Amino acid sequence: MNDKITIHYVVPADDFTRAGEASSSVKSKLKLMGVKPEIVRKVAIAMYEGEINMVIHAAGGTIDVTITPEDIAIILKDHGPGIADIDQAMQAGFSTAPDNIRDLGFGAGMGLPNMKKYTDELRIESKLGVGTTVKMKVNVV
Amino acid sequence: MTIKDIKEILGAKLILGEEWIDREVHTACGSDMMSDVLAFMKDQSVLLTGLCNLQVIRTAEMMDVVCIVFVRGKMPDAAMIQMAKEREIALISTGHRMFSACGMLYEKGLRGGASYR
Lengths: 141, 117
What we know:
The complex is a heterodimer.
Chain A: E1 5-11, H1 21-32, H2 37-57, E2 61-67, E3 71-78, H3 86-90, H4 99-102, H5 111-118, E4 121-127, E5 131-139
Helix pairs in contact in A: 1-2, 2-5
Chain B: H1 3-9, E1 13-16, E2 27-30, H2 34-37, E3 45-49, H3 54-62, E4 67-70, H4 78-86, E5 90-93, H5 98-107, E6 111-112
Parallel strand pairs in B: 2-3, 2-6, 3-4, 4-5
Antiparallel strand pairs in B: 1-5
């Protein structure tokens, strides 16, 4: 694993059954590359939470994953409604997800706290009416 | 405890995973909220849930869960079974409710894998 590898994903809008396909693909790739299981799991969970968020809140978006020997960087970009108060959104239990999403097992307000928990770096840039970009990094070493 | 033990303790139906039935499981987590499940991280876990959709299988995949127990008689559909098969996740269905199913497994020595800080 000497080279830098970049992968681009398009997350489709409003298709809850397909949410997680990109994360699943990254997980199997990292496994095949021989990345340590605990690192693979951290990346998979953080990215999956982000991917689910995109489908729930933002009608999809794009995900760019960059894998280097030092770290795995994940950039999730959407053109959704944006986050009004990022500090509030980071609080465990805070959610703006509609009830039908809760019926599907999500919307407990744990997405962003989980993303923070499982990554070494998390940065959120958001503008109301423009969209949200989430940058995460998981250290490999 | 093995997947086979879980099936027997719960008097449950094995929907998928005859070939993985001897796999060891060490911890379990019971929840209908997948976001909560994702807040826990432990190896070799079992997921007990009353939720029955594709995201249950995806969540299990991300968490390296080896066996999903559907409580309250929930039955996964063909798409869920196919996805679980590709990821080697055993599927079990029991008529017991969540509280009872968790209690029966706990009584036999299976413990929770809570690790949320």
